[in-house]
Amino acid sequence: MKRDSFLLRFSLAVVVDRASKIADLETKIPDAPSAAVSTVLVMMRLHDTARQEVVPLACRDEGKVSIYVCGPTVYAAPHIGHGRMVLVYDVLRRFLEWSGLDVTFVSNITDIDDAIIDRANAEDRDPADIATKCEAVWWDALDRINVRRPDHTPHATEYVPQMVELIERLVENGSAYQTSDGVYLSVESVDDYGLLPHQELANLREGAGERDIVGDEKRHPADFALWKLAKPGEPHWPSPWGDGRPGWHTECVVMSLDLLGEGFDLHTGGLDLVFPHHENERAQAVAMGQRFASHWMHHGFVEMEGEKMSKSIGNVLNLLDLIDRYDHRAYRLLVLQSHYRTPMEVTDTTLTGAETALGRLDVLARRVQTLEVEVDAAPDEDALVAFTEAMENDLDTARAVDQLYRLVRDANTALDAGETEAGMKAATTAFELASVLGLDFQDEAQPVPDTVRALADEREAARQSKDYQTADELRNRITELGWRVEDSSSGPVLLPVG
């Protein structure tokens, strides 16, 4: 049976008349910070950091969603924290598009920053060389975990003239001031400064981690650098205040507004970016009198062995190392099995468990592939509704994955009972949901080496004789050869690792 005959493409209109539901909800969200003048509600509901509650996602333009994701500073290989970030928003994007919405997805590249300069100085290299090579590694990692490329990938170095213009406007309207080492934003000029971290200005004493300056030039401890005058040997660009480079927080303001326009729909990132980065972005837009993001979405931390992943304690795991050691889909499934706002535990046990779960999806795909019948199976409408409701409820991917594997179980049960039509209905729906989640599956068998097949036969004989110790030892030998065994009701199935 050909793959195209069972991997059907379904329209969400089968179960949800989305257009009519949206039309019924054409209204503005009350009290939405920086909301656009005219908005249309989609059915998606997401937690908003500014409001501290789950609210409908307000869209500036009917049928369209504009998303800005804070991208990487390219000075080192991506770690698994970066991996969670790109996977969460990749899944959100896929679901919104599957729901019939036109998504514009922007994620920047910070290709000039203190971290890049520090590494360049330490290694006696050109900062641009480090940024270029690390960016190539970044995209390679994302390709390997099946993350779709953004529609736009603005680079900070491409936008320096626009950043200078923004800073000039802030100086002219009195929101920014010059010091001996650059230009700073006066946070006291922003009435609602502290909105995202939900802190009063008096409690925000840290000045965005910027360099210290001598004396009392800085008007408030939380004031942050918009322009940094260049130190000897640093990359620099011309400005009215002297050669230098923009501050990190200014970069994203200019790039997001240029590509998405005022009042764009959704700004995302990790919880560690809420303050100071995102609050300082927002503050600049407010100080210019411009509408910024209407909705702020933040995902939780990654934990390893119960501890938040942190460079300071040395438990940062390289993303490329992880996908070299495990099935490239395992980390995506692990991310999906956790709600995006909660901490996520990454261990050998959780990753191995994810690989096992992926094996069940692969076994079903192989099973359907071998069927000698042609069945036009309609989708399971109840399952589509349940999946959609889970995803629209603050991106509850854990519940959505439960629905996916319920379909896998139902498909196998029906096929075991000879109920081909029911089995195909559950299977095709499962494959559709897997596609929405970005989970590909291995439905085309690769040749199994004779050595691996012989070990699998020995293991099955050991299992049948209840010699489980020997069976486990043989499974380990099979794994060392790059294969894994998944037991099904019709016998063991061999799948390649990775």
Structural topology:
Blueprint: H1 3-6, H2 18-24, E1 40-48, E2 53-59, E3 64-69, H3 80-98, E4 102-107, H4 114-123, H5 127-144, H6 160-172, E5 176-179, E6 182-185, E7 224-229, E8 244-246, H7 248-260, E9 266-270, H8 274-287, E10 295-299, E11 302-304, E12 307-308, H9 319-325, H10 330-336, E13 344-345, H11 348-369, H12 381-392, H13 397-416, H14 420-436, H15 450-464, H16 468-480, E14 483-488, E15 491-496
Helix pairs in contact: 3-10, 4-5, 7-8, 10-11, 12-13, 13-14, 15-16
How would you describe what is shown here?
- The chain has 498 residues and is α/β, with parallel strands linked by helices.
- It folds into 4 domains: 1-20 and 359-445, Anticodon-binding domain of a subclass of class I aminoacyl-tRNA synthetases (Four Helix Bundle (Hemerythrin (Met), subunit A)); 21-155 and 252-313, 3-Layer(aba) Sandwich (Rossmann fold); 160-250, no CATH class; 450-496.
- Helix content is 42%, strand content 15%.
- It is built from 16 helices and 15 strands.
- It has helices spanning 3-6, 18-24, 80-98, 114-123, 127-144, 160-172, 248-260, 274-287, 319-325, 330-336, 348-369, 381-392, 397-416, 420-436, 450-464, 468-480; strands spanning 40-48, 53-59, 64-69, 102-107, 176-179, 182-185, 224-229, 244-246, 266-270, 295-299, 302-304, 307-308, 344-345, 483-488, 491-496.
- The strands form 5 sheets. A 4-stranded parallel beta sheet has the order 4-3-9-10, sandwiched between helices.
- Strand 5 (176-179) and strand 6 form a beta hairpin.
- Helix 12 (381-392) runs antiparallel to helix 13 (397-416) and helix 13 (397-416) runs antiparallel to helix 14 (420-436).
- It starts with a helix and ends with a strand.
- The model is unreliable at 1-41 and 207-215 (pLDDT under 50).
